[in-house]
Structure formats: structure tokens, C-alpha cells
Amino acid sequence: MSAAGTWDIRIKTPIGDQTARLSVVPDHVGGFTGTVSGDPGSLDIAGKVDGDRLTWTMKTTKPMPLDLDCNALVQGDTLEGGVKAGMFGTMALTGTRVG
């Protein structure tokens, strides 16, 4: 199933669960573009699609500057994966397709 669409995601962080909306627009060469929008604001993202697996990186400044390496496995209308946040390790990422 395609990862295209809009997803409500949840990341389990050391400061509590963080929620955001993820949009994924696949291209035709194995990549995608989109946005991640939540309390800290909106970030443009670009990443790779490998079968049902999405991978992307993003930088955040709130609550502190961090480089985040993200991955998610799409299974129907759900996704599951992780967000590697430097010295904080990898945090669980889950999501549900909303559109």
C-alpha cells in the first residue's frame, strides 16, 4: 500500500508524547516530500521510500536543537517506527492515516 497521504503521528519522548501531522507525497523515483506539523511549528521534509519503509531526517529547535533520523514501516492505514534523537536514543513512532 502506498504511504501517500496524511498521518496523525505520535512520538514517545522523554518529556512525554508528542503529536504531529505528517504529510507524505511520493515521487516516481523512490523518494517523497512532505511536512511535519505540530506544536513546535511546521517542518518541510524529504526522504526515501523503500517498499513499505519511509526514512527521512529533520531538524528541530524546540524544546532544543536536535537532528532527528526517522523511519516508519507502513502497514495499511497504520505506521510504526522510530525517531533517533542523538544522545536521547531512539523513540517509538506510531501513526494512523487520516487522509
TrEMBL record:
- What name is this protein filed under? Uncharacterized protein
Native species of this protein? Answer: Novosphingobium chloroacetimidivorans
User: Which lineage do the record's taxonomy fields give for this organism?
Assistant: Bacteria, Pseudomonadati, Pseudomonadota, Alphaproteobacteria, Sphingomonadales
